[in-house]
Amino acid sequence: MSATSAAPALPAQYAGTAAAQVVAGLPSTTVVCDMYEPRGAEIYHDFALGDISEAQDILREVRAAGPGTILELAAGSGRLTLPLLALRREVLAVDLSASMLELLRTRLAQLPPSAAARCTVIQGDITTYVAPRPVAAAVLGTTSVSLLTQPQRQAMLRRTWENLAPGGTLVLTSTQIVEDAEDLAERTLEVRGASGAVYLMHDLVAPDRSGRYTVVIGPDNGPQRSRTVCHSYIRVVPLDELLADLTAAGFSVEHTATLPGERYAATLIGVRKEGAR
Ligand SMILES: C[S@@+](CC[C@H](N)C(=O)[O-])C[C@H]1O[C@@H](n2cnc3c(N)ncnc32)[C@H](O)[C@@H]1O
C-alpha cells in the first residue's frame, strides 16, 4: 500500500476562497507557511527590495524629530532600516522573526562597515522590548501595527512610550480600506520580485472589512525545490480606535496624514511623548 500525502491547504479562515482552491490543487510537496517564517520571509524580502512606499514620509518625520537613536519596531529584512541608517543615526532594529533578521544581517554586511556598525539587530517582541537607553524616535512602518491584536497593540504602545526619551516621537502607519472602493472582491495579480521571480498574489478583504488577507503563491521551482505559498492577515484598525490607544498610552497626537492607495490607504500618524527634548 502506498502512502498518500495530503493536499496543501491554507488555514481554515481561507475556506471557500479562490486562493484556497488554487492551493489545494498544488503538489503535496508545497510548503504553506506564514509570511514571516523562513520560506515566506524569502518571498516577502524579494518583494520588499523594490518597494519604496512610505520611506520618504517616514524619513521626513524622523528628521523633524531631531537627533538621537531611532528604535525601529518590526524592522523585518530592513526595507526601512537602510534608509534610516542613511540618516547617520544609531538604529535599534527589533523584529520577532529570525528569518527576516537574517536577511537584514546579510544586507547590513553589504554596507560600509561604519554604517552597518550603527545598527543593532535585536530579535525581540515589540510588545515587551526594553531599549538599553531612551531613544529619540521610534518607527513602526509598513502598517505593521495591523499585525497585532488589540491587547498586543496596547502593550506595544505602552512599551514604546517607556522606551522614548521625554519629547520623543513615534511614527507609525496603519492600513485602511478606501471608503469608496467599489470592488472588494477577491482579486489576483501577478507580481515580479527583485529576483525576477513571478508570484501570484491573492488579495482578500474580510466580509465585515475588519481585515485583509494576502496569499502569495511562489513559482514552480522545478524538481530542485518545492513550491512555497505564504499568507498573512492584516487587521484594519479603525483610526479613532488607534488614536484612542495612542492617547491612553500617554502620547499626544501631533498629526495624521493619508498616503493614498487604490484599494487600501495608509494613515501615517506622528505622536509625541510630552516633555522637553
Ligand atoms: C510587514 S513586515 C514589515 C517589515 C519591514 N518594516 C518592512 O518594511 O519590510 C512586518 C514585520 O513585523 C514583524 N512582527 C510581527 N509581530 C511582531 C512582534 N510582536 N514583535 C516584533 N516583530 C513583529 C514580522 O516578523 C515582520 O518582519
UniProtKB/TrEMBL annotation:
<feature type="domain" description="Methyltransferase">
    <location>
        <begin position="70"/>
        <end position="168"/>
    </location>
</feature>
<protein>
    <submittedName>
        <fullName>Class I SAM-dependent methyltransferase</fullName>
    </submittedName>
</protein>
<dbReference type="InterPro" id="IPR049690">
    <property type="entry name" value="Daptide_MTase"/>
</dbReference>
<keyword id="KW-0808">Transferase</keyword>
<dbReference type="GO" id="GO:0032259">
    <property type="term" value="P:methylation"/>
</dbReference>
<keyword id="KW-0489">Methyltransferase</keyword>
<dbReference type="InterPro" id="IPR029063">
    <property type="entry name" value="SAM-dependent_MTases_sf"/>
</dbReference>
<dbReference type="GO" id="GO:0008168">
    <property type="term" value="F:methyltransferase activity"/>
</dbReference>
<dbReference type="InterPro" id="IPR041698">
    <property type="entry name" value="Methyltransf_25"/>
</dbReference>
<dbReference type="Pfam" id="PF13649">
    <property type="entry name" value="Methyltransf_25"/>
</dbReference>
